[in-house]
Amino acid sequence: MSAITIPEEIATKAIDPKAYADDSVHEAFRWLRANNPLGKVELEGLYPFWMVTRHADILEISRQNDLFHSGDMPTTFTTIEGDAAVRKMTGGSPHLVRSLVQMDAPDHPKYRVMTQAWFLPQNIRKLEERIRQIAREHVDRMAALGGECDFVNEIALYYPLRVIMEILGVPPEDEPRMLRLTQELFGAQDPEMNRQRQEMMGTPEAMEALQAVIADFYMYFKGITDDRKANPAEDLATVIANGQIDGAPLNDLEAMSYYIIVATAGHDTTSSSTAGAVWGLAANPGEFAKVKADPSLIPGLVDEAIRWMTPVKHFMRSATEDTEVGGRKIAKGDWLWLAYPSGNRDEAVFEDPDAFRVDRKSGKHLAFGYGAHLCLGQHLAKMEMRILFEELIPRLESLELAGQPRLAQANFVSGPKSLPIRYRLS
After folding, report:
1. What pTM was estimated for this model as a whole?
2. Which domains does the chain have, with CATH numbers?
């Protein structure tokens, strides 16, 4: 084994969905940052790839979108067998969907600008009152639950879902369907969340299951598209249904992929961060006391929860030229795993990185990515969380865990799947 190769047990842990569920992945990342921050993973059944664990290196790669592409190889980690299965289904493409996430220039900026205006701070400010109303409804729901609830499954999953579905133009009665499909898509590695109810990572069966979930999304949004072409409305679905790139309408794959990314990433990651904030406060009474005494700390609470939870665990990039990062020679065509939870706990950037601190001053987290692929919905996500806590914290008199929180089993997108809490609301 060469000096650049990561020891097998560390490499296995860094990619194992179960290690994200029991939080032991942070041990592997700590070891890597200290001993081999940009090392090579060489495991049977996988294409070799670089594991990028330092904040500075993730930033450098994310900043150079021409040098590190998102779309040439799979954008999320898979096995050799899984990649072959996808290419067989798609006629050669490594992607089951073609959304902004899988695109590089010149396509990426053209597609991004189509909806960008919807997510700019000055435009989402117009939604503030409506979002506050939705937030109040959810705090009232908490009050009605009588002092104990599973915060994930009774509050956190539904609040951001309602917000993004209103923006998209999906009727409330279809929200449960959107939630179920999102969980089947992002929870594909979790036997409690996927359709097969079994362990699966990167197998042909897993890819077929994902394709079936995507097909269900397609069927649903085909109906929405037909409706918005005939009856345009003031919603994002109308923008996508009638969108044009270079003077031609979006093809079905690209329109459907656009809907999927808005309809899934638009709430799932915000749900995870919102639950992360409540978990952090319930587990750290001193932090709860700080934010209770000083509501001006709420934006800090929001940022810290996003950093601490880091719902998007990785994206893959591939090098378009020979280059060097962090003292390592990267060859053209090399595949790289950007380990966001590791970058967000990098001791070189964050003091006492494993601690949850609502008044943290150091460091800028990488949870929304960086560069051209910076998350389109970041301002909306932070605003939704801020408003919810502006409504909740003043009424929350006590908060504690009422059982063991549980995290989803997934190495791509994941967060808490159960958070039992006990509380008093005025």
Report:
1. 0.97
2. 8-425 (1.10.630.10)
CB atoms within 10 A of CB 313: 23
Residue with token string 């006492």: 352
CB 391 within 8 A of CB 139: yes
pLDDT tens-digit series, residues 119-128: 999 999 999 9
Distance CA 315, CA 308 (A): 18
Q: What's the token pair of residue 343?
A: 């970058």
Q: Could you tell me how far CA 132 lies from the centroid of its own chain? A: 23
Which tens digits make up the pLDDT trace of 386-403?
Answer: 999 999 999 999 999 999
With residue 420 as reference, give the H or E element that holds it: strand 420-425
d(CA 67, CA 76): 18
Rg (CA), the chain: 21
- CA separation, residue 260 to residues 159, 202, 216, 299, 379 (Å): 18, 21, 10, 28, 19
Nearest-5° Cα angle at 224, 222 to 225: 65
Q: How many residues does the chain have?
A: 426
By the 8 A CB rule, do 408 and 184 touch?
no
* Residue with the two structure tokens 């970041």: 378
The candidate with the shortest Cα–Cα distance to 102, out of 63, 82, 72, is 72
